[in-house]
Description:
This protein folds into 3 domains: 6-126, Immunoglobulin-like (Sandwich); 136-253, Immunoglobulins (Immunoglobulin-like), CATH 2.60.40; 258-361, Sandwich (Immunoglobulin-like), CATH 2.60.40. 6% of the residues lie in helices and 56% in strands. It contains 1 helix and 32 strands.
Amino acid sequence: MISCIFSVGVASAEAGSALTVSVLKYEPVPAEIGQYVDIWIKVENTGSGKSEDLSLKMVPEYPLSLDSEANAIENIGILGPESAAVHKYRLFVDENAKQGVASFDVQYQKEKNGAWVEETFELTIGSAAFDSKGNVQLEGNPSKEPEVFMPGDTGTITFTLKNSASEYSVNIDGKDFDTNARVQSATLKGIDGITVASDTYYGNGILGPGESMTLTYNIKVDENVSDGTYYLDFSTIGSSHSYNNNWRIPLKVDSSSVRIVPSKPLKLENGKGTLEFDVANIHPNSLSSVSVKLEADGVDFSPVEYFVGSMDSDELFTIQIYGEAASSDDTSPKKVKITTYYRNGLNEHEEVIDVKDLQLVTVEESSAFSPVIAVVLVAIIAGAGYFMYKRRKQK
């Protein structure tokens, strides 16, 4: 059974050479308490120059120990460019060890009497194998909260594990076996920039045919992680080595969020007016508690913060915010800062979307009653003229 490959790259002092040390595999997986485990160490020269006299050294930590101290150091010798060497070590797992994760160090020396460079690796220690033939499978897609992370977000990934057996027993080569399933351990491993904050799950119970269980792991995405799809390793140790599983779990990181665009010119007439914006959620999943705030020197806005609420992906919302300058005589252009607040999952975000120019213009105000007054005056004049004409006619 091949484990995940752990590797650490180390640049050699020799010009053009670069060494990478990794655990190619270990067997059995998990390493069994009170038994030996074989570990294959791979050292690779990825540079253009050769390493003249390379040596490897195994330095295990309790509960691991070497089968013989004489086997601790292995001299590889010359390791040419673009070439690799593999050496197998045998370690013993102490009988009093607890199931979990054990560490061991691998040192390398690029030349005789040179300094040793040390790197640390881990392997999983499990319990004895069981005869149960139930197999645990990943049911559906893992659920993520939030569905798509942003840089700096924390959240969760939840897995549903199900015993795929449908009968309570199975006959193999004339022998009956139960179809219970065990999850002795379940581990989610992070990568650079994405940290799994939850420990490995260790279980002692069983899952009957068709039964399932859920496991949730906390995730932290660093602020400097680039947009893209990343893969985390989710591995389970089952009833026996043949029932171990390993899945690659995709996790998306996308920094896109809320876009705010003026839907008409940013202008206040005679020091006041209504500004209109289109607010769009361009993030791949829903955002909640979306709000917009405008700020400009010498201008008051109402509402001070416009609350939009929840927005589905690609949803568009039009908002209007009233603005009034402190002085109606002020016609100098203003810089208006547009800030949005929102939540992705439980993560609160504050983002300055843009800084726009706000124009303050003066316009001639015409009386709204002028046409009416004109009609009335015409009527009065006409009436007066008719009255004068009538009186003259009577005379």
